[in-house]
Each structure stands twice: as C-alpha cells, then as structure tokens.
C-alpha cells in the first residue's frame, strides 16, 4: 500500500487535502481480497447484538467539526440516507432534512435514533445491495464506519445508484475503530492513506466526480480525535 500511495500522489507535502487533488489512479482496482479480511470473521450480527446506545465513537471536538461541515455542505431539506447508522446521526440540531433513512446493524440502536424517519436493518458485508429506488436520495452519509466495509466497491456502486444526479456522498472517519472488525488494509495504514483508500472506492465505483478530501480535525498539538471527510457527487 505504501508504494501504491506514493505512486498515486501527485506532488507536494502529505496534506490531507492534497491526497486527492490529482492522484495517479492505478489502471485497475488496486486491492486484493486479503486487504478486506478481518481478524474476526465471525458473523457481524453477533458483534452488534449488544446495543451501544449512548456510546460515542469519536470525541466531542470531532463531532462538533463534523456538524459544522454538515451545516455548511448539506443542501436544505435534503432526503438523506445514513449508512452504517446507529442511535445518532450527527446532523446539526437546527438542520431539518426532508427525510432521514438510517441503515445499520442494531435494531435497538436504530430505534433509539430520534431524527430518523425510516429505519432499515441490514448487514452490508453480507448484502451490499441497497433496498432503495434509483435516484432516491440527495445525500448519503457514513460516519466512522467506512473502515468496516468488506465489500466497498459494491456498496459504493449501490450508493451511486440510489443517489440523485448531483447528489453527494460524504464519508467521514477518524482514527478509532474496533480493530477486530476493521478491514486489514485499514489497520495497517495511516490516516492519510485512509483518505486515498476511500478516494479509490469512489473512483473505481464509477459514476462519481473527482473525490475531495477535507481535514476537519479540531485538536491542537495532536490532542483530540482527528476527523476527515472524503466526498464526491454523482455525475
């Protein structure tokens, strides 16, 4: 991965915003099946059987940064799909979506999400096909869970299908994870390489414009959780 990442980078220092400005994408999908293996390959349903209601997987500073990003970048009254969702979707308190569909693994957590207007329980690693119509959503979000997708190319192709033309997909992530359930390549690479990995998902899925990266990290001198976003719009 390190060699692939260096070859793909255009020039300049390793700033998050630089990673996807003009990458030299490999001609074909650059990952192997082993890259998407996990230490714990048991049924994910067992892992998520115990609801984690009230648990926040990033700190308050990272959450505030993500909410500020949403406040500036979400279109008004958007029909939103929140993938790998839980009891909270991190939308700004004063933002009113047209609808918020949440899809996740824990029915109890989904039921506890007060902003949701529709709830779907689905394991995307078993069934990446989304149960929604073509061109249904204005925005798709995924908060700190893209690293658990073992079939990301199929999921991102489905994301493109259910987005409206011009609709945006916003993938946000930090440096926290459940290491036994995160994919292998994520666990053996660093934050800036994660940006390139998610950019690859958009690029090879097809149907998206050039992905863009943002460093929303609020901490000073390495304090607090980092927060990164990779986003792209449906062509």
**Total DSSP helices:** 8
Helix content: 25-40%
Order of helices and strands: HHHHEEHEEHEHHEE
User: Strand arrangement, largest sheet?
Assistant: 3-2-1-4-5-7-6
Low-confidence stretches: none
CATH domain topology: Rossmann fold
Shape annotation:
globular
CATH class: Alpha Beta
GO biological process, one term: methylation
GO molecular function: S-adenosylmethionine-dependent methyltransferase activity
InterPro entries: Methyltransf_11, SAM-dependent_MTases_sf
Keywords: Methyltransferase, Transferase, Ubiquinone
Protein described:
The chain has 235 residues and is α/β, with parallel strands linked by helices. It has one domain (2-233): 3-Layer(aba) Sandwich (Rossmann fold). 27% of the residues lie in helices and 18% in strands. It has eight helices and seven strands. The protein has helices at residues 2-8, 16-19, 44-47, 60-73, 107-111, 152-162, 184-187, 191-205, and strands at residues 79-83, 99-104, 118-121, 137-143, 163-173, 212-215, 228-233. It has a seven-stranded mixed sheet. Strand 2 (99-104), helix 5 and strand 3 (118-121) form a beta-alpha-beta unit. Helix 6 crosses helix 8 (191-205). The longest helix has 15 residues, at 191-205. The protein is globular, with a radius of gyration of 17 Å. This is Putative Ubiquinone/menaquinone biosynthesis methyltransferase-like protein. It comes from Chondrus crispus. Residues 120-170 form the Methyltransferase type domain. Keywords: Methyltransferase, Transferase, Ubiquinone. GO terms for molecular function: S-adenosylmethionine-dependent methyltransferase activity.
């Amino acid at each position: 991965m390190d060699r692939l990442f260096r070859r793909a980078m255009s020039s300049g220092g390793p700033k998050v915003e630089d990673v996807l400005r003009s990458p030299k994408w490999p001609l074909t999908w650059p990952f192997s099946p082993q890259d998407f293996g996990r230490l714990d390959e048991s049924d994910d349903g067992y892992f998520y059987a115990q609801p984690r209601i009230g648990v926040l997987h990033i700190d308050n500073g990272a959450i505030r940064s993500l909410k500020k990003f949403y406040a500036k970048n979400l279109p008004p009254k958007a029909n939103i799909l929140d993938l790998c969702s839980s009891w909270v979707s991190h939308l700004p308190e004063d933002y009113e979506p047209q609808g918020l569909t949440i899809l996740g693994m824990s029915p109890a957590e989904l039921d506890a999400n007060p902003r949701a207007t529709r709830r779907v329980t689905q394991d995307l690693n078993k069934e990446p096909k989304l149960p929604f119509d073509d061109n249904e959503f204005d925005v798709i979000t995924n908060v700190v869970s893209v690293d658990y997708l073992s079939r990301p190319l199929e999921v991102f192709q489905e994301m493109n299908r259910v987005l409206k033309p011009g609709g945006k997909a916003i993938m946000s992530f930090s440096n926290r994870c459940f290491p036994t359930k995160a994919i292998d390549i994520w666990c053996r690479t660093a934050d800036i390489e994660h940006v390139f990995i998610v950019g690859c998902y958009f690029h090879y899925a097809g149907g998206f414009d050039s992905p863009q990266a943002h460093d929303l990290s609020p901490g000073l001198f390495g304090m607090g959780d980092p927060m990164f976003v990779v986003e792209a719009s449906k062509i």
